[in-house]
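Continuing the series of single-chain predictions for the mutant panel. This is the parent chain; the variants come on the following pages.
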Amino acid sequence: MKILIADKLDEGSLVKLHSAFDLDRAEVVNAPAQELGLDREGGCARNRRFLAFEQELATADVLIVRSTTKVNADLLAYAPNLKLVVRAGNGMDNIDRAACSARGIEVKNAADFRAVTEATVYAIIGLLRQIPRIHAAMVDGRWEKIMGAELAGKTVGIVGYGKIGSSVAKVLSALGANVIFSDVVPKETNGVAIKQVALPELLATSDIVSLHCDLTADNKGMINASALDKMKKGALLVNFARAELVHTDAVCIAIETGKLGGAHLDVFEREPKEQKAAFDAGRIRALAQRGFNVSLSSHIGNQTKEAQLRIADEVVSIIRNFIDARKLVTERRPIRLPATQAAAGQPGRTQHSG
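Parent structure:
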């Protein structure tokens, strides 16, 4: 039984995975695809670095990915023995579930909602209190007491009522907000005074719109000029979901014209693969620099030590249940590392990348 980690995980998560499976359940190989030439689009360019990853993938039974590696038919062609794909995180839009199903490959995700919930509530309150504008003024050496607003009594529209969306809704409701939500299927609210509405009604009546849905072919670019035009003047937009849900240029225009009162974006279409890499968010970054009510973060919704350890625990549980259900035979085998890591004497421990 071989478990291959395709994307970078934080050190604590790797320790949990290695301690759970190294010598008693399976072989664990940490071969981050980012370091081996596999790009975000899943392109399998046959360079020397990818050949090393290909060799590991060819004999993998379980593949663990985050948001970087795109698991599509091209990648699966290199994985004849693959039986399970585990997404260490929430969204699964980087996994072609139909292609996996056609091969009889199970797909699971280890979702966590607490950290994203906290980050979302922080961003909403920050925008309401005009914190980005106040921060910009203070950094510029100007003392400005800008009038903000309170969350209580505001209508917050949650787009996507899954684990994260429902968690955000419950916290905001407890803080006095009037919460509504839209989803592609009817959802139960378990007694919480939260109403499901159609998306057009949500856009038209919300003071704050917060996105928490998966990316699909149907909702790509859903927050475009037309959608923004339907929103209340001065409304706020928060996106901790997927960058492709939002037409960023349209959001910038809406902020510049005063149609939108502010925005927080945590996700971007082209994100760097390495820590401290140069990154230009474009026009939206310029608005933040010019003192508009705009805040940006570097895909950090789940970026807490606690969240990563909870996700690692869930990944371990998923794999153990899978092994037990299929009664797979495991062997006591040594860990093999990519040559660069083995030479450095490192147990495959790398920084989390997003």
